[in-house]
Amino acid sequence: MGNITDKYVEKYIREVLPEQKGIFKEMEEYAEEFKVPIVHKEVAALLQVLAKSINAKRVLEVGTAIAYSTLLLCDAMKLNGGHITTIERNDSMVLEAKKNILKSGMEDRVRLIQGDAQDVLKFLDNEYDLIFLDGAKGQYNEFLNDCLHLLKPGGLLISDNILFKGMIATDMYAIRRKRTITNRMRAYLETICNHSELDTSIIPIGDGLAISYKSRRI
């Protein structure tokens, strides 16, 4: 449990949403056992709704981990045959992600790139309907310009962990060793909330989610 919403509200939402099955349930159990961070249940549901609502066909993800959100987004695009490109720098996570992608049977629709996102983003040349930013929290601002360049007008930039266990909103929850990340995340929020190309909403679910719409060219 975090400090984003009342615990009883969070508990109720997670209980009322249906349980995942198959590969997704297995990944949830693996994440819990090995303390691997994956998107919260309510965030997972919203990601799929958003991908479906804009009929996303091309998605970019920064931060694969074990490929839980990767495959959720891929599954959300199954009716239109959409494709996801995902970036991960951690060797052990890449190995686990590859196993899960193969096991899911969706490997033809997933491109996993191993490397530092700051480097990889500069070499991508596709245009994406949706970009899910879930990588190194202190580097979101460094990713932003490249993400906006890759995001098509009318597309969505979704930034996870944006309230960072409540530390972004108040120093009451601040941890001294996390102060640099906290300050950088606050700066990122200021940027996307006041960016001339973006309309942004901040959603207090999970660990905080920002949804930014890139304005269409006139």
From TrEMBL:
GO terms for biological process: tRNA methylation. Gene3D superfamilies: Vaccinia Virus protein VP39 (3.40.50.150). InterPro entries: Cation-dep_OMT, SAM-dependent_MTases_sf, SAM_O-MeTrfase, TrmR_methyltr. It catalyses: 5-hydroxyuridine(34) in tRNA + S-adenosyl-L-methionine = 5-methoxyuridine(34) in tRNA + S-adenosyl-L-homocysteine + H(+). Its EC number is 2.1.1.-. One of its GO terms (molecular function) is O-methyltransferase activity. PROSITE patterns: SAM_OMT_I (PS51682). Homodimer. Belongs to the class I-like SAM-binding methyltransferase superfamily. Cation-dependent O-methyltransferase family. This is tRNA 5-hydroxyuridine methyltransferase.
